[in-house]
């Protein structure tokens, strides 16, 4: 619980002596953290003992990449976003398209508001998926929580998930305790998560005590999946083969709402507020925490000169089929929404549905040797 | 420079002195100053809810840490606010290996060894052949003139090396130190080293600022250390803020080398090609004494006490922190089935020529002393000298087709 909590002692050293060397760094934290802001925040600590040095450690340890701008900081608890506003608000604004401290975030998990999404061409769209994260009120977050807290989160989650029925009936597999056969199956299903190796996560303290109180729950149909105690308290995933994003999103919304009800009954609802939406460990996942995406075949479009521009205008992002920081294989890309904060779940999934539909049409045009110049969309 | 810190360290030195005398070893409890949230949390999460799952673990910490000890120590903090959970994190995160028993625990500051003595004393006993810090005293002896037969046959011994570590009293250790503390360690050490003269005169290379050319030279000289990748170290928070305030100092002759802020505040290394271990040890002792004198001139000192000798980050390096070793060719002996037993009895350890956890290439081995605590530097280096001479003797005898004997085991505190 008390990680790096020798703040009173550190205050005896000068600001300049404690201020990190960020001259080689390229991440959001390094851009924002001036000596003045550091000075203002270094004497503070959240009620659970998280300090500004804890917030920024991952960004100090990982200078970043000239082309990819990582966030470079994490929250240790719900209060971090309040206590360290002077640092986190500008980072949030930078990362989330100018989102202001006075802005309000809209939450909309009403799947009926989604138009279309049930007709993406399965010859191109191989699979559809929506994920988000949820943090449970009353517990500190993965960078900071103790073993006791993490286990309490696991127990609460197991209880909540065990009460689900119908299409959501399923089973929990603790990471430490699954059989070899179960592990093989989870790997084959692409469900298993492993101990983080990325220094972005390990330097933030998220792999401590692995695999204690970590696990995977999924429904019998293998279309709804929950990760417990990985980078967030919960990661919730709805997925299926093919292009029926509407169905994926329906299951996502219904499942999430059922789970939330159960946690609320235990007086441990989800962390949420009207400014930041759902509170998660990484500031990049605030708002909806939602990444809705497809694996789609776009061999011609992906080599077109305007591909990146099209994605930007559609507010979409591409990744390889291994997820973040992987390369595409065989012209198949993971295409998903780029935004998280400032627009609702419905808005974001709508962008994916509309955008992917358009890109598939472009692909077909290119296959026929025709031009797509007339189809380039305006900036959304 | 010391003046801004003497106010700080005098208070901590007192605590250390008191603790060393057996007083106040209860440490500092999370006190009345704790926020309401911290107090409520302690009630909500009794020690049993936080006790780590160590069922798959094989390290000294896991062997020693019972739920009762954990319950007693969990809510204590050192004056610097370092906790038990922080000490043991590396051991929880690294279950270990069935054959290699790692320590699984680090100190965040000098006081850790006092405040968490109930755990550390058990680990020390386990790791250091039954040495009991509660009743025994560790001898320090850096008089290199006492070494005899310290010149090896260079047909067999390719190089000789002695290393140890030193911590600067009043500043937290690498797992716990803030950036300011780490920078202060660097300042104190580099200032002192700038005062060395003659064959010890040298130059400091900051890891963050060195040129490509300097870097290449240091790699070629086998001097450069890199950011730790071993999870044993990274899980103990030792790679934070890399490469801030880390660097390498070496003398112009390239025979005396100091690492700053890697796994300890300083690692001090004396080395040469060839078999003149006596001279290597002389330079080692001489250099150490001069550095100590130079830091004392400015009001600093090394962490040391009678129970534990020199205080370092890892309990395995307490006492002398000394590893004296050679790269030695033993083509015949290394293939003899009695090799391991001979090493064992001589209290020697073999490693590959890449250092710890590497395999030997060909017939050349890194042979060094196993022990660190309970015997003085002179005793350990003499043990190494006698042992290596014995191994070379065996090798020569095997070359001539003569018989060799397993030597009697050297006396320990317990077997």
UniProtKB/TrEMBL annotation, chain A:
- Domain Phosphagen kinase N-terminal, by residue range, is 10-97
According to the UniProt record, one GO cellular component term is: extracellular space
Which residues are noted in the entry as ATP-binding?
127-131, 190, 235, 291-295, 319-324
User: Does the record carry Electron transport as a key word?
Assistant: no
Give this protein's Gene Ontology molecular function annotations: ATP binding; creatine kinase activity
Assigned keywords, A-Z: ATP-binding, Kinase, Nucleotide-binding, Transferase
Domain of life the protein comes from: Eukaryota
The keyword Nucleotide-binding appears for this protein: yes
Say which family it is in.
Belongs to the ATP:guanido phosphotransferase family.
Q: What is this protein called?
A: creatine kinase
Species, as recorded: Neolamprologus brichardi (Fairy cichlid)
TrEMBL record, chain B:
Which keywords appear in this protein's UniProt record, sorted alphabetically? ATP-binding, Kinase, Membrane, Mitochondrion, Mitochondrion inner membrane, Nucleotide-binding, Transferase, Transit peptide
Q: What class of enzyme is it?
A: transferase
GO CC annotation: mitochondrial inner membrane
Instruction: Please give the Pfam families that the UniProt record associates with this protein.
Output: ATP-gua_Ptrans, ATP-gua_PtransN
- What does the sequence similarity comment in the record state about its family? Belongs to the ATP:guanido phosphotransferase family.
- PANTHER family this protein is in? ARGININE OR CREATINE KINASE, CREATINE KINASE S-TYPE, MITOCHONDRIAL
What protein am I looking at?
Creatine kinase S-type, mitochondrial
